[in-house]
Write a structure and sequence with these properties.
Layout (H helix, E strand, L loop, with lengths): L2 H9 L7 E6 L1 H8 L4 E3 L13 E4 L5 H5 L1 H5 L8 E6 L5 E2 L10 E4 L3 E3 L4 E6 H5 L4
Antiparallel strand pairs: 1-4, 2-7, 3-6, 4-8, 5-6
């Protein structure tokens, strides 16, 4: 059994569950993780064709996925430093019905709360990536 598989077994992590991720920079990471219940603020993305919202994805933080994250969902390198990982997608909808590259993007038009029982990890991407190798 690989080290990553052993860690998943010990942590009780089930990868068939709808895992959801939010990539961010250090300021965003510090702001969200400072709260017991994570709160992701809805805001206007740089792309004017995207609605105001809190944005998430189902793209796991593997080395291969990170190479193409910007191309796939327009997460800039600066926002690929830290990650929040939680279970479920209650209250989230697929952007534009999940057409094209939007099939990997989930959005909440309001601020989005993640209760402690759904929280999995909040850490540097490089550290969390080990769970998915």
């Amino acid at each position: 059994m690989s080290d990553a598989a052993r860690r998943r077994e010990i942590l009780g992590v089930e990868f068939s569950v709808e895992n959801t991720f939010h990539y961010t920079d250090k300021d965003g990471w510090n702001g969200v993780r400072s709260q017991r219940e994570w709160l992701f603020k809805a805001s206007q993305p740089k792309d004017p064709n995207r609605p105001v919202g809190a944005y998430f994805t189902n793209i796991e933080p593997t080395r291969q996925n990170l190479k193409t994250l910007y191309k796939r969902i327009r997460v800039p390198k600066a926002k690929q430093q830290y990650i929040f990982w939680f279970a479920g997608r209650e209250g989230l909808v697929r952007l534009h019905g999940g057409r094209g590259r939007d099939k990997w993007i989930y959005v909440s038009v309001d601020d989005y709360r993640v209760s402690t029982d759904r929280q999995r990890r909040a850490d540097a991407v490089d550290t969390v990536m080990e769970e998915f190798q």
